[in-house]
Amino acid sequence: xxxxxxxxxxxxxxxxxxxxxxxxxxxxxxxxxxxxxxxxxxxxxxxxxxxxxxxxxxxxxxxxxxxxxxxxxxxxxxxxxxxxxxxxxxxxxxxxxxxxxxxxxxxxxxxxxxxxxxxxxxxxxxxxxxxxxxxxxxxxxxxxxxxxxxxxxxxxxxxxxxxxxxxxxxxxxxxxx
Length: 177
What we know:
By secondary structure, the protein is an all-alpha fold. It has helices spanning about 5, 10-25, 45-50, 55-60, 75-80, 90-100, 120-125, 130-135, 150-160. The protein has nine helices and no strands. The chain is elongated and about 80 Å long.
């Protein structure tokens, strides 16, 4: 037989679980908004995007076909820079990785928590632009995290139908599977 005392803890446990979910969803479980780590090479996005007209997919080649957007191999950079600005300090750093056959150790900027699945290809192919989540990267001297990327921020897009053509689901299993 169950007594009243045993059931008294249930509302407290439910409240505790709700608080934990709330704090996780709206706190710093993702990388912090405004984070702008120093990178091993100062890559000038404005020059490549605004001046040269390069599309994000040239470097982030897998963003429209993979969960991860991808980064170019050092050889991709060097395809241009063995000739173009080859004597600049930043290109010399790049060349050192190339000749050592090492990838550039970029510092990750945009990160969602491990328990969240963010398939880039679904978002890109639905018409969500890179700037919708990453901010105006083409204007950033140093790339920084422009949005919080926390659950509340994502839900504002999914529930608010931020992009009318992007019919986002918003049940838990959409992102947590």
